Each structure stands twice: as C-alpha cells, then as structure tokens.
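Example 9 (inverse folding). The structure is encoded as follows.
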C-alpha cells in the first residue's frame, strides 16, 4: 500500500475546511471527499427514495453518492473538488439521523410507482400527495439564490487531435501525435494525469515519466478536471470544467472542433451484487487506489476484496504490499 502513495497532497501546507460548521484539517491537494474520509466521516448522503445512508463508492466522479453543497453551490461531487482554505461543506438533507429512513423499513409496500397507484383517486388527493412527495426525496439540496450573478465563459478550441482520457493510453496517444508537431488537446476529468488505477512500482514510474514528457510538449495542451460531456455527429465536442472560487467564473465550457478525436476513457468496474452492497464503507476497487494515494487507507487498515478476476487480485496484492 505504501508504494501506491503518489504524494497527492502537499503535507507541508495544512488547510482547514468546515463541515457542518466544524473545522476539518486537510492538506493542499486533498479532495473534499478524501479529507472527510480521513476524519472518519463515511456517510455523505441519503438515497433518493428509501433514505438509506450513502457514502463514496467509486471516487472517480461516476456516482452521485458523494454530492454535497460546497460554498453554497449544490450537487458538487466532492471526490472531484479540491479543498481550499475556509471552504464550507454541507450535506444535502439529513445524514446522520433521517426521520424519513422509516421508508426503508416499509420498502415491501412501497414498490416502484406506488404513488401513482395509491393517490390518483380521489382526484382531489393527488395535489396534496404530490407536494408531500416532492419534499420527501433524500439527497436533494435546497437551491439558494446567490447575491451576485454567477459568471460563465465559453472558449472555442480547434485542435488537430483531441484525446479524451488521461491514463496511460491517453497520454501515449497525445505524446505520439505531439511528436509530429500537430496541435493536441488532452482532456481528462481527474485532478492529475495518470488514470485511477496504477499498479506496481514499474507502472508508477512509467506514468510519472510519461506525465512529465507530455507536460513539456509545447503543442500539447492539457485540460485537467475537465469532463467531455457531449460528442456530436458533426465532430463538435463539449467539455466542462468547474472552476475554483479564486477565479471570477463558475464554469468554463470548452467547445472543441478537432480534425480527429481519440477516445481513451478506460473502463469502469462492475459492482458485485450482494445484500446491503450499497452501504457506506463498500467501494469499487478504483476507489481503494484513490484512498491509498491520499493516505485514507494505511498499512493498519483491514480491507476485504470480493472478486476473482485479474484486477481484483492485483488490487489485493497492491493494498497488502
């Protein structure tokens, strides 16, 4: 596990964020999710219908379990948000104790779409039931009206080659195209290039070396923390990056029209199906790598890995090393 540590944080600079008004110490380079997990906070939200407790699951921005309100902005993925000094983080709805969690005990009599069957007659009852149902879902924030208008910007880019994904394959493709002198834009949703799951000392060194070479290429532009959200038939690619509050923009929308697009987005793990598999403390393998990198998992942490494929086996070996 120690060799997975990629020095994601700058431990020389300690920062303080506030969770539910209480100070939480963290380090520059931490994400909000890793800072909270390191302090033993595992319940981040509640499920939409049954109000079951939810915690981070993938730590790669693919699920909604870690969403919180950050500095007044709702539905922020905390696993993709870097900590800042004085940042204020609030859970969305009740987390520790949710009175509507009783619906989980009544799941057998609350099937899918039960409200349409139970409350459509008499007709006068439906408006009252609808207002109640709209107030009861878990995990939803209260949208606050900002005192100052939010600012957004649009940037138009015309690279010759666009690479989506900053893992080993994506960086290799960007470097190969860059060697021919073409203009390359590399879009990656992670905070730093390299992908989520890096196994073994040799691969760590390969990633570090490749990352350094790509960043030194003047004709290769890297857009980190940027999500390619749409690809249109005419070749237009829309990528969105949530900006820091240190700059005057809430988000930057990149409209890219490349001559060629390379997809190197990798793959996602498939969750193992078993009872109570949605409870806090249960993660996908890639989340274990992220937690090891950020020092959430230490050599004293006991981890149970379920699965028998090559990736699960390599995860077990890396976490135990």
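The amino acid assigned to each position is listed next.
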């Amino acid at each position: 596990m120690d060799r997975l540590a990629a020095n994601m944080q700058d431990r020389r600079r300690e920062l303080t964020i506030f969770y539910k008004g209480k100070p939480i110490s963290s380090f520059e380079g931490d994400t909000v999710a890793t800072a909270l997990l390191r302090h033993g906070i595992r319940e981040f939200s509640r499920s939409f219908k049954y109000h079951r407790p939810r915690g981070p699951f993938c730590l790669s921005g693919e699920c909604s379990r870690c969403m919180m309100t950050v500095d007044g902005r709702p539905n922020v993925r905390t696993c993709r948000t870097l900590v800042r000094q004085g940042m204020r983080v609030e859970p969305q709805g009740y987390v520790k104790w949710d009175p509507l969690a009783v619906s989980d005990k009544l799941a057998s009599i609350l099937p899918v779409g039960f409200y349409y069957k139970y409350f459509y007659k008499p007709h006068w009852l439906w408006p009252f039931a609808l207002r109640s149902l709209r107030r009861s879902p878990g995990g939803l924030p209260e949208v606050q009206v900002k005192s100052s208008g939010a600012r957004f910007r649009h940037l138009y880019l015309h690279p010759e080659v666009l690479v989506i994904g900053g893992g080993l394959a994506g960086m290799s493709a960007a470097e190969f195209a860059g060697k021919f002198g073409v203009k390359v834009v590399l879009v990656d949703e992670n905070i730093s290039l390299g992908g989520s799951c890096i196994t073994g000392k040799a691969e760590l060194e390969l990633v570090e070396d490749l990352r350094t070479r790509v960043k030194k290429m003047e004709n290769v532009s890297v857009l980190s923390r940027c999500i390619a959200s749409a690809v249109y038939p005419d070749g237009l690619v829309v990528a969105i990056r949530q900006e820091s509050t240190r700059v005057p923009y809430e988000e930057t929308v990149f409209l890219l029209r490349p001559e060629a697009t390379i997809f190197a987005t990798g793959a996602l793990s498939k969750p193992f199906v078993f009872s109570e598999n949605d409870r806090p403390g249960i993660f996908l393998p890639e989340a274990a790598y992220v937690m090891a990198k950020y020092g959430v998992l230490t050599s004293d942490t006991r981890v149970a890995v379920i699965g028998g494929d090559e990736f699960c086996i390599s995860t077990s070996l890396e976490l135990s090393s």
